[in-house]
Give the backbone structure.
Amino acid sequence: MFIPFGFMNTQAGGGGSDADADTFIAAVTTAGGTLSSTEEDAIQTLFTDLKTVGVYDEMFAFYPVIGGLEATHALNGLRVSSSFDLSFNGGWTHAASGMKPNGSTGYADTSVVYGSSQINNNTFGIYTTETGSGSYPIDGGVYNSNGTDVWYVATYWGATGAGRATNDWNDSVGWTSTDGGLMINMRDAVANAEIWNNGSQVATITNSVGGGDSGGRSFWLGGANNGSLSFPANREQIFSFFHRRALTSTEIGDISTAINDYQTTLGRNTY
């Protein structure tokens, strides 16, 4: 039987595949990664779920952290270009379980810069698998020493012994959990920030104080970009994303479910 387009036969888990997921899977393989059928199915479902809930198209980047290698963990799931692939610096450990900075020199540059259009219109998230500890480790963010133009999430903040986050203000807010999981930070046009942890809203900041932008500095994972590495962390990460707008509460709940379902399939979920 003649099959004019061989790629039309590509399937995951016995069902139809997503073309963007196929492109990402191919990129992981090209980078040296080997994926099981379970992992390929998890990727297919992740892409489908993100599209179904309406958050896929407006992302800067998301990082599925799959393949067990630095080269595969670096890959942005959006393969339109390699503009937002991670650039690892310092000490990192890479394995099937995730990627872990060393808490002193390790950070990963996302190249994502939140400028004026995202000041009051942004959402980002980081999923860690380990309990918080240390002095003031930030799992990812931008931190200007003038106290403004600050975005970050941290599983643990030494002064409070709890989670901590801020979103472009000289202000921050904590929540009681230090057990890691999926931390999502959203700021909207009415100057409210919502902090979500493991699919539930845990804190709110209402404050119109803020700077102009991130000063041209990009988000780093494993610490904060303050022109150099500040507040380095040593907690393993298994997912992160950066969205171009403020997600609604429903969308945050939906994206939390999609990401955690992906991690559950891989056996890496924390909740």
